[in-house]
Specification:
The protein is of the alpha+beta class. The chain is about 35% helix and about 15% strand.
Length: about 80
């Protein structure tokens, strides 16, 4: 599978940026330098893949977790501990 970036759509982000600026005022003054948009990854069963890739030496996966922002720090820590 090959995924490609999608055209940036700041209008979709605007409500979320406004909420962020209410909570953290500096976001309202900072501006946007660049918007990068891509597909949100999902697996067919809604779970994600984490661990050593079968058949590939020294290749580990942590993929398919949708947006991943919420899980990212915990996933990274767990995966690093698993690797060592």
């Amino acid at each position: 599978l090959h995924f490609h970036l999608t055209p940036p759509n700041v209008e979709v982000l605007a409500p979320w940026l406004e909420l962020a600026a209410q909570r953290i005022p500096v976001f309202g003054d900072a501006g946007i330098k660049k918007v990068i948009s891509g597909p949100i990854t999902h697996t067919p069963d809604g779970g994600y893949l984490m661990g050593p890739a079968p058949g590939l030496r020294n290749y580990w996966m942590c993929v398919g977790s949708s947006i991943g922002v919420a899980q990212g720090p915990g996933d990274g820590r767990y995966l690093a501990q698993w690797m060592v």
